Amino acid sequence: KSANPQWREQFDFHYFSDRKDMLDIEVWRKDNKKHEELLGTCHVDITALPTKQTNCLELPLEKHPGSLLMLIAVAPCTGVSISDLCVCPLGDPNERQQIAQRYCIKNSFRDIKDIGFLQVKVLKAVDLMAADFSGKSDPFCVLELGNDMLQTHTVYKNLNPEWNKVFTFPIKDIHDVLEVTVFDEDGDKPPDFLGKVAIPLLSV
């Protein structure tokens, strides 16, 4: 019951500079559990923002009265990456040697926050459920570890998709659980759930 709400929420997204992504924002009004109404949308071109600083933006809502006040900071991603299987970062013996030295016992207390990192190779899925009328699905895979979320591209009309992507996450808590979820892309509608697996880091 407010026309001037204050949320004071922070969200972290991984943005890679080779992509031309827009940040899409929607404001909704909820009367009860069943009725929702869109109060407006706005868009931010991330590539146009200065990096390594906090940008204060007042964004007018399109085709609706009102505006959003936001703080957006674009900073380099550290330790988080997506790469193709053919250029797997840990495939280089020299890099493996550097990592072994970085985490050896004598360097344990050099950087207390640097617990380590997790590298996940997402190869393929087999015999997925058909979510479309055509008897096929448009699957993509989402990986979540703590506050980090990365995803593969979508393989269209396929129940046995091959992604062949390598994901690297910095580990912030050894008790975290890696959650891998497969969804069916459904155009403008929310994606359909196709399956999920949870892997505690302590089991790796």
UniProtKB/TrEMBL annotation:
Keywords assigned by UniProt, alphabetized: Calcium, Membrane, Metal-binding, Repeat, Transmembrane, Transmembrane helix
MF annotations from Gene Ontology: calcium ion binding
InterPro entries: C2_dom, C2_domain_sf
Domain C2: 1-59, 93-204
Pfam families, sorted: C2
Protein's UniProt name: MCTP2 protein
Subcellular location: Membrane
Transit peptide recorded as keyword: no
SUPFAM superfamilies recorded: C2 domain (Calcium/lipid-binding domain, CaLB)
GO terms for cellular component: synaptic vesicle membrane
